[in-house]
């Protein structure tokens, strides 16, 4: 155990100023006093008596663990990638799957995250968390200054000497908050916004003679099916998913509630989750849990009074608007009978040349009253195009959300479950997630009380821009395309909403029960099948629809367990990490008994003998645990199957046409089912899977632990779990097609918390939380906590998070006392 005290930051900041040529950005004479205690796996317990010091300790600790990864994101959101890295290169926002080249990324963020854009968020953040933000900046910059002064030798080798390791400002952190708010909306369309340019002006005579030709709806639909582009990323939760349960007293052996928080987020990049413990005795704050990098507040967490978690919601956070243009000037659009001009926004970026010199590039981008213009193409076809007659724009509710930080700030200070639920509705700042919560003696609570455009089904009927609205609805049901020429097609407002243009809590789904609630990225509808939630507007989610394999398993496995008896914590944890594959439960026996009886099937490259693969599948335990044998065959089969065109002979209500029993809204947890194994597409998918496994060199009965490993941590660590598309609850996602190196995991289970409460000697409920950070706390290979938590996760060695002072002292590895300036 190491105990340090570092007093004074003036010298370090002075050196930083000399090195960077930039002044220390925050501080302003602030005085800081904070203690960072590290426990097993490097978990920081940050204790201070004022908000600024709390932020200071958090910023320092996060920089110590993840400096380079987050610093690159700060540079990106400034619109300075090209300045430091040159035009050749790109940046990916991993959860939404968007990759933009450096130039495009810079133009987008210079255009989107302007000082004016972040001003409402900055100005309306609670003063206490403005202080936390200022403190974070100073703590981050202090660590950066120490590193540049020669402290922390050997650490952060990927950026320690980089010219982009410069001080950050408060605005950088507010831009980070803003960037996270847009992750399920505007930033999905980075490329489409930056590349949107008006067509050439027509001559006046041509403009007068030009008549509108309706777009070919069938052609647009075919193009989208072949190449859905960013719209596919909106509907797919593969890299942006989660599971969560809240169990009430009727479901637990102890009679105290339990909660699972289980986000499936990237194992790389800045959307990893960082576990910390924030203590401020002066404010009765004692909150522990995880946050996305760069957010100095607990986003998923627990204390003695309540626990909560999130999953990405099905609600849309934006709408498209179709604009009717002035044929003589395609930068003017019709609104209430008058042509109004778009706003031209010249954007200039700096670009580093091959010789190290800097040049500039300027591009003019455009905004309507609703938001940025965009052009969306699919298979080379302008689905949302910009011609002399029509153009498209986007309004983003989360670009207008100035309550994001306040929601979590208030929750972190809440003192009861009732207060937590009341704040959920009063602040209404959650950007794109569902929430479950519970607490000692309380009910299990669910709510999709989040920022959703106030677009009712009636408005969609009245205002849809046709035929494009119908075309997009085939790919993204519920996403409106509205007529931008009419004032009565503006978003509505609710009297109980904290801001205009969004639904208030009375029009958003919630549920409280004594048994359980759950969500696995399906809609609110089957939060608990015993009490379906109905009657909400389609933009929030679907009702009476196929919820998918993973959400069905989430319901079934809990129902099955409860049929055997109420849950204790170990039973709950075993359920969470079972690695069961639901598609295999539904279809493996049909494949083995009927398809395998053929002996040989026709793959895309010719006949293939499947007998050896079938023998492995017959003995497979239907799970992807480390000792499971055969799961890789099934994964490749199901990957091929879900990527194949369905048969026109099978017509379920919703979902792929491989099921003999279609979806039924009267039995949504068990349908569709019964794989049609005699379909040629099914047989080809299986034959191709067998060929893939053969080509990889892995035996058909190879233990899964020899096949699957982290992509970017320590490749020697075996990882259990299955893909979302094959119906796994214990999730890895976006793994590669099997090859000689096996599967590399870039997404999946990330931060996991299982929480309950136990009485102390006085009978007062005290929190008991166990879990993992699956990819460990640090992205720095030189950090001792780069892979240690990953090894514990690999062995399913649940760790009790130290929460009380006694637990922290017992698990203490180091203690650092920071003061300043």
Distance between the termini: 26 Å
Can you count the helices?
23
Strand order across the biggest sheet? 1-37-2-3-8-9-10-11-21-22-24
Task: Report the sheet with the most strands, covering strand number, pairing sense and barrel closure.
Answer: 11 strands, mixed
Radius of gyration: 27 Å
Q: Would you count the extended β strands for me?
A: 37
Tell me the fraction of residues in β-strands, as a range.
Answer: 15-25%
* Mean pLDDT across all amino acids: 93
Low-confidence parts lasting 5 or more residues at pLDDT below 50? 9-25, 646-655
**What is the chains' assembly state?**
single chain
Helix content: 25-40%
- Inertia-based shape: globular
- Which structural class matches the secondary elements? alpha+beta
Which secondary structure elements does this structure contain, and how are they paired or packed?
Elements lengths: L1 E6 L2 H11 L11 E8 L3 E6 L2 H27 L3 H5 L4 E4 L4 E4 H11 L2 H10 L2 H22 L21 H12 L8 H5 L9 H6 L7 H10 L3 H6 L5 E7 L10 E9 L6 E8 L4 E8 L7 E3 L4 E6 L5 E9 L2 E7 L2 E4 L1 E10 L5 E10 L5 E2 L1 E3 L2 E4 L5 E7 L7 H10 L3 H11 L5 E6 L5 E4 L9 H7 L4 H8 L5 E3 L26 E4 L2 E4 L29 H16 L4 H8 L5 H14 L4 E4 L2 E4 L1 H9 L11 H12 L16 E3 L11 E3 L4 H17 L11 E3 L21 E2 L9 E3 L1 E3 L1 E9 L5 E9 L14 H7 L4 E2 L4 H6 L1 E9 L1
Helix pairs in contact: 1-6, 2-6, 2-7, 5-7, 10-15, 12-13, 18-19, 20-21
Verbal overview:
There is one protein chain. By secondary structure, this protein is α+β, with helices and mostly antiparallel strands. The protein is built from 23 helices and 37 strands. The strands form 9 sheets. It has an 11-stranded mixed β-sheet. Strands 6, 7, 25, 31, 33, 34, 35 and 36 form an 8-stranded antiparallel β-sheet that branches. Strand 9 and strand 10 form a beta hairpin. Helix 1 packs across helix 6 and helix 5 crosses helix 7. The longest helix has 27 residues. The protein is globular. About 3% of the residues have low confidence.
């Amino acid at each position: 155990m190491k105990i340090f005290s570092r007093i004074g930051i003036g010298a370090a900041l002075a050196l930083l100023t000399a090195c960077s040529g930039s002044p220390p950005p925050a501080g302003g004479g602030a005085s800081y006093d904070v203690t960072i205690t590290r426990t097993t796996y490097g978990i920081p317990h940050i204790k201070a008596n004022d908000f600024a010091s709390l932020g200071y300790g958090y910023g320092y600790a996060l920089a110590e663990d993840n400096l380079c990864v987050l610093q690159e994101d700060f540079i990106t959101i400034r619109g300075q990638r090209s300045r430091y890295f040159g035009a050749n290169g790109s940046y990916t926002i991993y959860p939404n799957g968007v990759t933009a080249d450096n130039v495009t990324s810079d133009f987008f963020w210079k255009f989107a995250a302007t000082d004016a854009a972040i001003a409402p968020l900055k100005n309306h953040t609670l003063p206490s968390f403005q202080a936390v933000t200022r403190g974070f900046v100073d703590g981050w910059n202090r660590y950066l200054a120490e590193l540049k002064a020669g402290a922390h030798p050997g650490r952060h080798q990927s950026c320690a000497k980089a010219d982009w390791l410069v001080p950050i400002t408060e605005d950088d952190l507010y831009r980070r908050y803003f960037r996270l708010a847009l992750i399920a909306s505007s930033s999905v369309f980075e490329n489409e916004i930056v590349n949107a340019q008006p067509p050439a002006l027509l001559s006046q005579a041509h403009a007068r003679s030009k008549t509108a030709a309706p777009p070919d709806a069938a052609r647009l639909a075919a193009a989208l099916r072949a190449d859905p582009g960013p719209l596919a990323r909106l509907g797919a939760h593969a890299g942006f998913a989660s599971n969560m349960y809240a169990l009430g007293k009727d479901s637990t052996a102890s009679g105290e509630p339990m909660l699972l928080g289980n986000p499936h987020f990237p194992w790389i990049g800045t959307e990893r989750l960082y576990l910390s413990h924030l203590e401020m005795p002066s404010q009765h704050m004692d909150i522990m849990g995880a946050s996305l990098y760069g957010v100095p507040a607990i986003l998923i967490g627990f204390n003695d009074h309540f626990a909560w978690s999130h999953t990405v919601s099905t609600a849309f956070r934006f709408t498209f608007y179709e604009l009717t243009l002035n044929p003589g000037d395609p930068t003017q659009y019709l609104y209430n009978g008058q042509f109004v001009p778009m706003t031209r926004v010249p954007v200039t970026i700096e670009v580093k040349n091959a010789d190290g010199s800097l040049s500039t590039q300027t591009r003019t981008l455009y905004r309507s009253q609703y938001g940025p213009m965009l052009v969306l193409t699919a298979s080379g076809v302008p689905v949302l195009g910009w011609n002399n007659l029509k153009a498209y724009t986007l309004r983003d509710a989360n670009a207008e959300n100035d309550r994001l930080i306040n929601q979590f700030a208030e929750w972190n200070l809440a003192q009861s479950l009732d207060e937590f639920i009341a704040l959920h509705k009063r602040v209404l700042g959650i950007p794109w997630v569902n929430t479950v919560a519970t607490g000692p003696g309380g009910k299990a609570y669910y709510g999709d009380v989040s920022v959703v455009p106030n677009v009712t089904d009636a408005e969609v009927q009245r205002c849809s821009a046709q035929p494009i609205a119908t075309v997009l609805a085939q790919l993204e049901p519920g996403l409106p395309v509205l007529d931008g020429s009419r004032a009565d097609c503006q978003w509505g407002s609710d009297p109980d909403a904290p801001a205009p243009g969004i639904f208030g809590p009375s029009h958003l789904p919630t549920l409280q029960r004594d048994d359980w609630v759950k969500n696995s990225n399906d809609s609110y509808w089957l939060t608990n099948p015993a009490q379906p939630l109905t009657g909400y507007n389609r933009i929030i989610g679907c009702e009476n629809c196929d919820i998918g394999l993973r959400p069905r398993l989430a319901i079934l496995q809990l129902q099955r367990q409860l049929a055997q008896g109420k849950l204790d914590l170990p039973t709950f944890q075993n359920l969470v990490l079972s690695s069961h594959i639901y598609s295999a439960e539904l279809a493996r026996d049909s494949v083995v008994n009927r398809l395998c009886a053929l002996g040989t099937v026709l793959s895309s490259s010719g006949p293939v003998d499947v007998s050896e693969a079938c023998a492995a599948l017959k003995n497979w335990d239907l799970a992807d645990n480390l000792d499971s044998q055969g799961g890789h065959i099934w994964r490749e089969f199901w990957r091929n199957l879900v990527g194949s065109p369905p048969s026109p002979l099978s017509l379920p209500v919703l979902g792929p046409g491989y099921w003999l029993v279609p979806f039924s809204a009267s039995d949504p947890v068990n349908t569709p089912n019964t794989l049609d194994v005699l379909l040629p597409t099914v047989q080809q998918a299986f034959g191709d899977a067998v060929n893939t496994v053969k080509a990889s060199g892995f035996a058909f009965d190879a233990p899964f632990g020899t096949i699957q490993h982290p992509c970017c941590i320590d490749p020697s660590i075996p990882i259990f779990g299955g893909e979302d598309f094959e119906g796994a609850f214990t999730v890895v996602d976006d793994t590669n097609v099997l090859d000689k190196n096996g599967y590399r995991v870039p997404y999946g289970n990330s931060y996991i918390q299982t929480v309950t409460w136990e009485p102390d000697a006085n009978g007062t409920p005290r929190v008991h939380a166990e879990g993992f950070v699956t990819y460990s706390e640090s992205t720095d290979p030189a950090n001792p906590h780069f892979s240690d938590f990953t090894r514990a996760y690999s062995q399913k060695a649940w760790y009790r998070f130290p929460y009380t002072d006694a637990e922290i002292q017992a698990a203490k590895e180091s203690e650092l006392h920071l003061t300043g300036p």
